[in-house]
Amino acid sequence: MVVAVILGMSLLVVRGLGVRGAAPEQPAAPPANARATAKEIAKDQIALAKLALDGIAAQRRLGRGGSAHTGAEIHRWNKRLIKALRTVGDRPELVKALKGYVAVAKGEADLAEQRLKVGFGGIDGISVADVKYRYLEAQRWLAEEK
Looking at residue 2, what is its pLDDT? Predict the structure, then answer.
């Protein structure tokens, strides 16, 4: 029940930030005797991670993401998605998510490199190394699943 409450609150927070643009919905409370399995919990985590990643992508397309949705945040949500997918055991979906994340991480690494070259504020060699590390990590995760 605690997981459902936390998950419900997380959905409200994400939706409240304008990720979907819809009014927050109250999740149905599970029965008091309900016991969720690890796979059931992971499925809820997958839905939440996808919601967050979709919201970040939408805000970036609209130019509203700014520095609020950094590569570190994208990495964090992809890492959560991948961990939950491994728990569920849906290998085709896991490989698909990893391929998508590798593409996003490459884009982030290329952008960071370009920003460093033109002297974009707040970007230094350590920041670029961090983004490149996340890209290599995504590639390694995909290689481990193949």
Answer: 41
Give the pLDDT confidence score for residue 26 in this predicted structure.
56
Query: Does residue 67 sit in the same domain as residue 102?
Result: no
pLDDT at 85: 97
Among the three residues 44, 71, 89, which one is the final residue of a domain in this structure? 89
pLDDT of residue 60: 80
Residue 13 pLDDT: 41
Number of structural domains the chain divides into? 2
Name the helix (H) or strand (E) containing 63. none
Residues 27 and 77 in one domain: yes
Q: How far apart are CA 139 and CA 77, in angstroms?
A: 16
Domain ranges, residue 82: 1-89
Under 8 Å CB-to-CB from 90, ≥6 apart: which residues?
none
One-letter amino acid for residue 117 of the chain: K
Which parts of the chain sit beneath pLDDT 70? 1-35, 64-69
H or E stretch at 82:
helix 71-88
Q: Is the distance from CB of 22 to CB of 63 less than 8 angstroms?
A: no
In terms of domains, do 51 and 22 share one?
A: yes
What the block records as the tokens of 146 is: 């193949």
Q: Are residues 74 and 20 in the same domain?
A: yes
